[in-house]
Amino acid sequence: MVVSGEPLASAAMAFGRRKHDSSKNRDPFEHLADERRAAESGEPWFLSPDDSPELDVEAGISSNLRDEDLE
Predict the structure, then answer these.
(1) From residue 7, how far is each of 2, 14, 15, 18, 30 by CA, in Å?
(2) CA-to-CA distance for 36 and 66, rounded, in angstroms?
(3) Pure H helices in the chain
């Protein structure tokens, strides 16, 4: 029997959170797991020998462009 003026269901039920299966893996990148493991298993790139040529670096020069730099 429904009493007039009372809701049929509680408001908390209408806006309740869905329960998730805790045994299910919720990793959105699960499809990339093998690729990630392969990348993480080797030697870090920054520890490998550097065979590239030396960089020509000049320190103390402003990064602002001057008129003669544009010519």
Answers:
(1) 9, 11, 14, 22, 43
(2) 46
(3) 11-14, 33-41
Percentage of the residues of the chain whose pLDDT score is greater than 70 = 56
- Phi, psi of 41, deg, nearest 5: -85, -20
Output the six-digit token pair for 38.
């392969």
Query: Looking at residue 10, what is its pLDDT?
Result: 59
Phi-psi region of 11 (alpha: psi -120 to 50; beta: other; left: phi over 0): alpha
Residue in 42, 25, 23, 21 with CA at minimum distance from that of residue 33: 25
**pLDDT, tens only, 25-41:** 788 899 999 998 888 88
Number of H helices, E strands in the chain: 2, 0
